[in-house]
Amino acid sequence: MAAKPTSTLSTLLGAAFLMATSAIGPGFLTQTTLFTVQLKASFGFVILLSILLDIGVQLNIWRIVIASGQRAPDLANALLPGVGHFLSILIALGGLVFNIGNIAGAGLGLQVLLGIPVAVGAGLSAGLAIVLFLVKDALRAMDQFSKILGLLMIALTLYVVWTAHPPLGLAVEKTFLPDTIDTTAIITLVGGTVGGYITFAGAHRLLEAGMSGPEAIPQTNRGAVTGIAVASVMRILLFLAALGVVMQGLPIDAANPPASMFQQAAGLLGYKLFGLVMWSAAITSVVGSAYTSVTFVRTMHARLNNQTKAVTVGFIALSALIFMLVGNPVTILVAAGALNGMILPVALLILLIAVHRLPFGKTYRHPFWLTLVGVLIMVVMGWMAVRTLSSL
User: Which residue windows are transmembrane per the record (predicted)?
Assistant: First the structure.
């Protein structure tokens, strides 16, 4: 049963920051740095296009979920029995891949900050995330945790931008007139920001807070756009910091691109700041990934629905265990964004069909222009996914 509605502003900010900090994980930091090295100032165009695609995705999915008052897998099962379970498996697998990278990133962050082994840092971080879900008012704690660390990441990265002295004029110029357009970068960025579980994080959180129905659509719009705005500010700041380093001709270490970038921009202090930013990004993404993935998994069986905390703890523990066995996370972090970008067209297609086939009440009609935007994004992302798969 959904909780009673709480303060609207607090709820919206909690959902927006949950979505944004779910997106701002280790993969987010790694992808942004790597693609800036490859594309330089032209990466600004990829960011601009991904922001527009992100907004279109978020508005569609958040509105459909909130207007219906049902989680996405329940909607999908109402459309055709079994489709919701299929969607849940896709989202949970994508979330698990992301979470392996998140756990790894948390370990890397604590290694930089405290000098402890990555595996130990990963285990400690996983333990902290588990404790957060075991406290009495876990959802409220999760909201506050996401807000505080989200704002901290933005403030620290802003300082690194200041020390990196990026060429702002060139960045603006190439954002609109790029030298090259990289479809793999686009699908990876969109997948890393709203792909897989991420786009459902805020919408499912609003449902948990008791916000649903057509009357909640105006607030839903604000929450969706706020979440993308927070994630986009962080993406742009990281891009500018990396661009400043790259345009000075300073080398970026491929073994740990974002750490190298922070260190080149601000010396030893920058390296330590990277550790804090990386850990903050990773631990909030662990929380967001576990919470959202389990909102899908719990719909598959009544027993799972009644043991939500246990399933969440198991999800986090499994992610940590797999990381211990896999090792080097950099490839996983980049691949996770691409994988979730490929899941996105499937999830969007299911929900767009549902909103036009299922009864949503007499007071809600999904706007034609938003449906059109959703279809265009679905086609573009599907085409890019096919291109990416064929190039592997």
Answer: 39-57, 78-100, 112-135, 147-165, 185-203, 224-250, 270-297, 309-326, 332-355, 367-386
